[in-house]
Amino acid sequence: MGLNVSLIQMDISFGDPKANYEHLKELFTSFEHTKPDVVVLPELWTTGYDLTRLDEIADKDGHNSIDFLSNLALTYNTNIVGGSIAKNVNNQFSNTLLVVNQAGKLIKEYSKAHLFRLMNEEKHLIEGNENGSFTLAGQKSAGVICYDIRFPEWIRTHMLDETKILYVVAEWPKPRIDHWRALLISRAIENQCFVIACNRIGSDPNNQFGGHSIIIGPWGEIIAEAGEDETILQAKIDINQVDEVRNTIPIFKDRRPDIYRL
Ligand SMILES: O=C(O)CCC(=O)C(=O)O
Locate the CN hydrolase domain: which residues (predicted)? Predict the structure, then answer.
């Protein structure tokens, strides 16, 4: 089973949702010809990390972004792992991943479980307590956000029910891009799954972001990797490889949760 995935590694205007909607709309026009099965966006792509102005710029109940992504999904007949947005529910703000299917229906929302203190998230956002599991394009999948990948036990939690694809959406800073690559490759090898990870490029007043969006196979091999420019990273992945790897080294059968400490 082949799946065409496209990652939009984009720059993001700081605190300017209108500009970011326009920019993304423009980037999507490249899909008039390529017809991906799944398109993936980065973290907080509507606002960037403008956390001190969330009361003005966070999306009320996510309505604008959900409508926007739903229209894109219908126009381009594609599934969208819609990165994350700053969502405002009764003036409480979350960093929330949106997944919209080909029919334009919102099928999953996941709010970042691990807030990143180095970028003050815990001062402005509430953390999510639900998992990021969903089925998209017929595949058991999970979606997590940026710092979440530093918590292998959280990723493993998603993998225990035969999940085959891990989507990661991020605004990962350039100075730690080596961590980004190493962590993602490790999550792919230890869970024997595809890792499809979309980062942003560019900078905001506090950080420079590192790009290097990446598609990794269940054996840990890099299938495609972007550099530091704005780009759309594309690859066709063969989902059957997950079962092949899991049959070769059956780590899910060999686990010893009876002796592990959580
Ligand atoms: O863990 C890191 O080094 C980066 C995490 C991050 O930038 C985020 O969660 O937004």
Answer: 3-239
CATH number of 2-255: 3.60.110.10
Residue 190 CB: number of other CB atoms within 10 A?
A: 14
Show me where the domains of the chain are located: 2-255
Residue from 169, 115, 180, 116 nearest 142 by CA: 169
The verdict on whether 228 is a catalytic residue reads: no
Express each pLDDT in 81-137 by its tens digit. Answer: 999 999 999 999 999 999 999 999 999 999 999 999 999 999 999 999 999 999 999
- Written as six digits, the tokens of 199 are 């980062």
**Cβ 47 vs Cβ 85: under 8 Å:** yes
Out of 108, 109, 146, 171, pick the active-site residue. Answer: 146
What distances in angstroms separate CA 214 from CA 122, 193, 217, one per listed residue?
27, 14, 10
Give pLDDT, residue 18: 98
Check pocket membership of 117 for ligand 1, CB cut-off 6 A: no
ipTM over 0.90: yes
The answer to whether 5 and 36 are in contact (CB under 8 A) is: yes
11-20 pLDDT, tens digit each: 999 999 999 9
Q: Tell how strand 139-145 and strand 133-136 pair up.
A: antiparallel
Ligand 1 centroid – CA 258 distance (Å): 32
